[in-house]
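pinned: reference chain
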Amino acid sequence: MPRFTLILALLLGLATAAGAETITGEACYRYGPAETFYAARHVSISLAKRNALEGYAPFADATINMREPELRNELFANLTVRAMKDVRVLNSEEDAAAKEICTRIEAEVEAGQVKAQAAAVFNAYQARRRPPRTGLPRSEFLRIVNVEQFPCEFDESVQCLNVVAECLRESHGERHPVRITWYDPQGRPAFTIKRHVGCERARDVAAFLLRLPPPTYTFRVDLP
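pinned: its structure tokens
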């Protein structure tokens, strides 16, 4: 490789590395007798990712006035998918006697992307203000335990949204909808996708992948 090309490549690599920062987060989740270890581990990872963002100064600065519980939930759902890259589980420990899982993660983020995505979510939320809702989406039969980004099964170069739902009780053949609504940069609903989950028994877990739209779009997952 020519000397000039080598130097240019090194400079470009340093510029890319300089834009990304490593953040870490940890959380413990105590689960009940009706929950599976698989679902509880996903909840623990979700909480650790949320704590990592909470402790990241650019996120705290960008969202200091965004305190509504529903808005905070949408911020974390979108940013953990859009802004947190290369999420790695550093440590995961289970205390079987206490039914508690503790997880520590790290991820790469860029301050500019975090701020831009936070602003997009806030603008979309303001455009369709609704009464606040706390916690992860939950219905009589289902609850969402995790939402994250994965390479699509049909093409690993394309990113998909992975949604994990857990059954809370048997539905006796009835199938229950999980609705994902995408909003354009102006906060207007762009399109909606529904997936239906049948619960043969409590604690069954279902997961499905959806192709992610352009990065300027935000999303909302709920259980109608």
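why pinned: The helical segments are 3-19, 37-54, 57-62, 69-82, 111-127. The longest helix spans residues 37-54.
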